[in-house]
Amino acid sequence: MLRVLAKLHICKLTREAHRYHHCCRYLLWCLRTVSSLTNPVERIPFEKLETIDDHSIKFHQFRQILQECTSAGDLLSGMSVHTHLVKLNINGFIMIWNKLLSLYLKFGHIHYAHQLFDTMPQRDVVTFNTMISASVRDDYDAFELLHLFSKMKKEHVKPNHITFSGLIGACNGLIALRLREVFHAQTVHCGLSSNAFVGSSLVDGYAKQMRLEDAIRAFDEIIELDLVSWNIMIDGCVRNNSKEYAVRMFLQMLKGNARFDGFTLTSIIKTCSKPGDLKHGMQLHGCAIKLGLAHETPIHNSLITMYSKCEKGMESPIKIFGSISEPNIISWTAMISGFVQNEQSEEAHGFYKEMLRSGVRENDFSLSSILPVYGNLANLDQGKQIHARVIKSWFGLDLSVNNALIDMYSKCGSLEDAHLVFMKMEKHDVVSCTTMIMSYGQHGKGKEALEILLEMESEGLVPDGVTFLGCLYACSHGGLVEEGVRVFKTMTEVHNLKHKQEHFACVVDMLGRAGRLNEAESFIDEMGIESDVLVWEALLGACRLHGEMELGKKSAQKIMELRPEGHGPYILLANIYAERGSWEDKEVLREKLVSHGLKKQLGCSWVPLERMPC
Question: pTM for this one?
Fold first, then answer.
């Protein structure tokens, strides 16, 4: 008894005195009674326990005892109960064993839980659901989940909506993606695919796989749609970059008289990401105010992002941020990202310092958002200070933060530091390799960039269009024409990727830099991209580099036809005239520039200055 009291002392620190003492007396009395039952001489028959007076114990009360142990964080007392249950050799009361299973899983004793699960006299759907949920939380692989489900079927335990929801939600990774379809088929077989709980899990799973059509089909199977189902479907549309479907679902939700909440508005506001969406975004803002949801911080955060992307300048986001009573890290990060998107790097830096002064600690998203600021400002010292903060925190292992560090060091001219960050990363993704390839390209190291491409493929990563664009850019600046042509062909022949105008422009630029201007012109004709302004701009730049006047005139004329509002072709062609000594032609072209109401855009440079005393 003294040992039990010592164990129960843990509860005393976390619970009220009255409830604690009541629990102590109750548990001690229960254990004392159970101990008397384990005596081979004085054992009371099991079937008589529930008919004896108040001094006896009813076995179903063990469930309440185990619940008390779980709530109070008292593992040792729970294990004592387990000991007595084993001594009693109980074959029934599955609910008691399920509570004991939950107790072990709550404290992270997976091994004990599996041992208990394997030795339980009986198992029901709650038992399997508990183990499945634990496996999902601990990131067990798909085979473990499949083993549990197979065992469940062998024991003729009928799965319910909670079972399938857990199984479907755990299907992540290449192998498990196919399992989601298997479990989907099982839900249809069991008649549970129309359940809102199961259907929502299917919608969420397919949306994360970027299979929006399958997600919509799963959504249409749900008989009784609730708010959670609508929210998951709309969020899935947004995640799949389908503004049309997201808006359609939102309107369908309104027609069905379903009441939406802040999460619904937060998701639908994300569809407003371009200047043309400003009017729609303002309507949603008005809707939030009208329904009394505008005070919610997540709504404010989404509005900050929306106005930052749709409206020129940061006036509206600043006003919205000022109206937030308690801005969180997401609010600060949204503001920093907004300043970066609007090319206000100095303001972003100032806002970041204000965030730190207010006592808000960075997370991986805020660090990934602030690092590009110092790349844009080419401020290596400040960038290194942020890197030091990353090392002191636990975000040095985060992929997005490391990718931002590579980009920052590259733009600041420190390719060695960028390479060092890349090499120290535990694992890479497509963005990591693409950023490193672009970094090598900016510094004219084409061979190193192509080596990263080979390393990337050896790691099982699939390059995308941006990756190949970086490789072409690196080949262009590194003078690797033949290698660049091979990369261009590999896109379609090996990876089945469609060329975009940026890829064509890179090839033209690559040929032009190598002095192969006629080949560049022939490439434009062969590919049928004469109406693409980017390729003519690349060719004009090459003509300027090599002083080719006739082809330069043709390129400039094409650009003027395709983009009459641009001043670039006038300036480049005028420089070609000046280098050839055709001053009269240059003056005529300058006058033509002025007569069209065009003006050369002024350039600027950043020069770091030492702080001067006042």
Answer: 0.75
